[in-house]
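Quick one:
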Amino acid sequence: MLRLVVLISGGGSNLRALLEASEDAEFPARVVAIGADRDADGLAHAEEFGIPSFVVPFGAYPDREAWGGALLEQVRQWDADLVILSGFMRLLPPAFVHALRPNLLNTHPAYLPEFPGAHAVRDALAAGATQTGASVIVVDDGVDTGPIVVRERVPIQPDDTEGVLHDRIKHVERELLVQVVLDIANGAVDLAALR
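Output:
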């Protein structure tokens, strides 16, 4: 049984997909803790599902490295097999990334390497793209530059707004994330081979 720690900054829709999947006794992973860098709305899922949670506020530390050290200390307490960034909107310091790689995953609302960064959906629309996608990657020191575990195309409709398109991408992201966790647990994906 894989032990997952999920880090969030917002509503935690990908987190919820993992929590719902793990309600099935056959699903080979469980979320053991939920962390955040702020008082995120998604922490309500922790309470609803009875999962321990923690908050390591970025502003409480003198710099990114000190904050990353405190976050890593919290994460390590849970003896996780995988740490998943689920809408976690802070850049992690290299020491945090190196301590957990390759078992540190992130979801991204684009078909990487297309449209990296915090505004991927807006950027895809601004570029006039006819398709974008969703990706799950191993986190590295760059911004959305890590090895791609899986990605899937999502068409862009002519009348799509940023919100409508993002909702459609999120649906695919959730499915990909749950499948990746299942594939890692079953040995179909070897993260160490993706370095």
